[in-house]
Amino acid sequence: MARRAGGGPGLRLLLWLWGLWGLWGLCALGPGPAAACSPRCRHGGLCLADGSCLCSKGYEGERCQHATCYPKCKNGGECLRPGKCRCPPGYGGRYCHKVSCEGGCQNGGECVSVNGVVKCLCASGWTGSRCQEAICPQGCRNNGACVAPGICSCPAGWVGRACHLAVCKLPCQHGGKCIAPNVCRCRLPYSGPQCTKKRKE
């Protein structure tokens, strides 16, 4: 009589026991121990089996606690989050690479850094921390104000490049000189507001 393929009952029993042993082995082993990171990984970092962190893009450090900026923040800037720098006073721009003067520089002034000190470099004729003050080399007299390089704004009764010339609405006569608004200094023998009165000998 011919044998059926597949072996006898002894072989089938052996295969069944082998499968049972393999199944028991898998159950006995179970899943590996869960990875534990303490303190935990921050900013979406992945905890690895050895307790270290695999940081997500834009962060670094033992626990992914530090943001990274590329290029790095310059001039002492601090990276707050990926690509975002907090700049110290006097600097600005995405990576703190631009010099920044508080309030800006006026009248054509340029913000520069000289030996680590940020300041405005003023155009000719201007001065002040923000180049806000005009320079009048001739000076502005009689309470005049320098409003532009070399230009004075004079109060009422005064004119001239330096506000040094008084104005008399009624002119001084007989060689008299206007020395203050509407005040004449008369030549002898004349007197009066406009030097019109002649003194009698």
TrEMBL record:
Residues 33-65, 97-132, 164-196 form the EGF-like domain. InterPro entries: Dev_Signal_Modulators, EGF, EGF-like_CS, EGF_extracell. Residues 1-28 form the signal peptide. This is VWDE protein. One of its GO terms (biological process) is nodal signaling pathway. Gene3D superfamilies: Laminin. GO terms for cellular component: cell surface; extracellular region. GO terms for molecular function: activin receptor binding; nodal binding. SMART domains: EGF (SM00181). It holds the Pfam family EGF. Keywords: Disulfide bond, EGF-like domain, Repeat, Signal. Disulfide bonds join 37-47, 55-64, 101-111, 122-131, 168-178, 186-195. The gene is Vwde_4. It comes from Prunella himalayana.
